[in-house]
Specification:
Number of domains: 2
Number of strands: 10
CATH topology of the largest domain: D-Maltodextrin-Binding Protein, domain 2
CATH architecture of the largest domain: 3-Layer(aba) Sandwich
Helix content: 40-55%
Order of helices and strands: HEHEHEHEHEHEHEHEEHHEH
Distance between the termini: 64 Å
Structural class: alpha/beta
Number of helices: 11
């Protein structure tokens, strides 16, 4: 069927169509302009842990560099509580305008949902992944007096001596606990988990010989390793760390399936407009390529890793699924 339009109406329709198109694109143009001038006021970077820890040091280093690069204060704000849930919820409920950001991590985004029966926010759909700040290897460190020189020797001992090997971590469901469970599940080595309130609390027992080893993130372990109080046996990262280039990876030690790295990143509230997301991604990645921030992160044991928001989102989802399987295999029940 053909509909004929009165020629006298064509001009009116054309004019009306142009006005509609113009009004439809006006918000997009405004958003693009906003992104181009962003930031126009101070930004809050919420650190969901207490001051003085590794996340706090990393977050403040990032905030300082962003402030220097873009001329607006990026204020690091500690909002600790509930294993990172308090600060994360605060950002999830903030306006999606780019001025409230979260220093996120695999612990708060991919592990946290499996440890709590019901979080007050959705870590996958309730936040917008902006980018990764860096990857920090998880490291297996042992008492220097133990005779094991390689991971293979330790695993061989664990298989024929059930219950003799113990490993400490920062608590049930921590990245250290899951690292130990991962190694146990893929090798069959018998190891007993000893949870602590923090990973730092495990080191005195490891040094005294009460606990065989500790699984920890490299930034938290680096000073103990440098001081010779524990010996790094292997790292769970895809490649060796420049801080300890002599320490092999789990893959090099014959257990590639046990690779598991700790990442820190930046998340924004959900429904962040695409132009603002692109601008924040650009800002973050520019900061990560500056020598000042790169050197600071590397000396902490973190490998700066600029990525796109899409790459970060894929990393988050992959880790979320993998952690879920690990938690189920370990028999961890959410509280």
């Amino acid at each position: 069927m053909t509909y004929l339009i009165d020629p006298r109406r064509r001009t009116l329709l054309a004019a009306g169509g142009s006005a509609w198109v113009g009004s439809a694109f006006a918000p997009l143009a405004a958003l693009a302009q906003t992104a181009a001038t962003f930031p126009a006021k101070p930004i809050r970077l919420v650190i969901p842990f207490a001051a003085g820890g590794v996340s706090d040091i990393l977050g403040r280093a990032l905030a300082q560099r962003l402030t220097e690069l873009y001329g607006q204060p990026v204020v690091a704000e500690n909002r600790a509580g509930a294993g990172g849930a308090v600060g994360s919820e605060m950002v999830a409920n903030a306006p999606p305008d780019g001025y409230t950001l979260l220093l996120s991590s695999i612990s708060t985004i991919a592990i946290g949902p499996y440890l709590v029966k019901k979080l007050p926010y959705d870590t996958i759909n309730g936040l917008t992944p902006v980018g990764i700040v860096g990857f920090s290897p998880n490291v297996l460190a042992i008492n220097p007096a133990l005779p094991f020189k390689t991971l293979a020797e330790l695993l061989a001992f664990g298989k024929v001596n059930p219950g003799k090997l113990t490993f400490g971590s920062a608590g049930i469901g921590s990245i250290g606990h899951l690292s130990g469970e991962l190694l146990r599940s893929v090798t069959g080595a018998d190891m007993v988990h000893v949870p602590y309130k923090t990973s730092a609390a495990a080191y005195p027992d490891v040094m005294a010989g009460n606990v065989s080893m500790v699984f920890d993130t490299l930034p938290a372990a680096v000073n103990f390793i440098k001081a010779g109080k524990v010996r790094a046996l292997a790292v769970l990262s895809p490649r060796r760390t420049p801080l300890f280039p002599e320490v092999p990876t789990f893959a090099e030690a014959g257990v590639p399936e046990a690779t598991l790295s700790f990442w820190s990143g930046v998340h924004a509230p959900a429904n962040l407009p695409a132009p603002l997301l692109a601008r924040l991604s650009e800002m973050l990645n520019k900061a990560l390529t500056t020598p000042e921030l790169r050197e600071r992160l590397i000396e902490m044991g973190t490998d700066p890793t600029p990525v796109t928001p899409q790459q970060f989102s894929a990393q988050v989802r992959a880790d979320f699924e993998r952690i879920g399987k690990l938690v189920k295999a370990a028999g961890i029940v959410p509280e």
